[in-house]
Amino acid sequence: MIPLDDETLMAYADGQLEGARRAEVEVALAVNPEAWETVQMFRDTRCMMSGLYDAPLREPVPARLLATLSEEERVVPLRQRRPCWYRSTTVPWALAATVAACAVGLATTGIFSESELFGHRASPQLADTLLNQALDEQPSGTPLVVTGNGATREILPMLTFQDPEGRYCREFENQVIHAFGKNNISVGVACRESEGWQVQAILNRALVAQETSTQDYQPASGESQTSPYDTVLDRLMQSLPVTPAEEAEIIQREWQQAGR
Amino acid sequence: MTGSNDKRVTPETRQQLLALLPRLRRFAYSLTGNLDEADDLIQAACEKALKHLDQWQVGTELDRWMFRIIRNLRIDHLRSQQLRGESVDPQTTPEVANDNDDRRIEAQQTLEKVSQAMAALPEEQRMVLILVSVDGLSYREAAEVLEIPVGTVMSRLARARRQLHALVHGSDPSQR
Predict the structure, then answer these.
(1) In the prediction, which pLDDT does A259 show?
(2) Residues B1 and B26 in one domain
């Protein structure tokens, strides 16, 4: 008769016994209530941990990890090549920034949709609902803040301009603050098409620690590589941003081109 | 079979690694009990993997190879702490999300007990438990990750689960 030791009973409970042995154990168990209890114990402990370590699955993979695996392997120190009229943002742009390529659909929380994490530079993607709403309705400098699922998402349109094709485009900042105190900040540029906002490029920034970010970080001077994000932005943004008054009017028109 | 040692990191491999990240992070988190430490561990593991990709035999499972790298780094880390005479913090218990929903409080309490019990287990038992019960590897796959015989995986796992059960339900683990 097959020995009903712990290892055998556990393998039975875990469904890791082959046909013949499995049948043998079943026969033996039928007349051994004590061993049957042990099987229940192993079943119990099998599911005990479910959910316990899922915290990392509920938040997006941090940009620094994506950066490690990014094909670009390019670290952009700070945005340096801003035209002089470029609006200074409220975010301390410290630390390394990296374009995270190929991060499609890695992790999602309720308010952090997949398209949010994408990194396709080649093909623009349709903005998710919240981003669409924020870009449609919020004047530059006024964020849309939504809280849910243990995270807060803040979308801040930064400026509005017209690209060479005449489309309206906006640069925005997107921030997700998690209950764990983790931050995920990205900036992106989207252009308005008839069906909604198309995100043209996005740049993720990992703010590892708040203290570091408040320090005055001096970027390495001299020639820095141009990030793919900046390349896209430079191509699109060849004119001055619209004024707040013009922007208000455009929002009023629901982003229709001014009829001439 | 070693195959050709192609050092080039193909886009496919990067994609595969990216897709593995959530699982790898959960594994690392279960070992460290701390998200920041877990991410440090994953970052180190990814860097190591990219550098030594030639040691990965194409055709074998990338996830198990990565688990092995993570496990080895973790052990190195614990050892270096011991060598430096630092007290080895067994594992801080993971934060179990607070939930005020009455129906879930009991489940929550059980989960907290499990979390504390896990932290009390020896590292080697915890690892095998996590690989099999959390990540769902077979005994054979876990043996491959831990580089130990399947029999050892099974005896460790059985001991760990008796221990866990006893700690959570408050009975004597040695009692059969």
Answers:
(1) 63
(2) yes
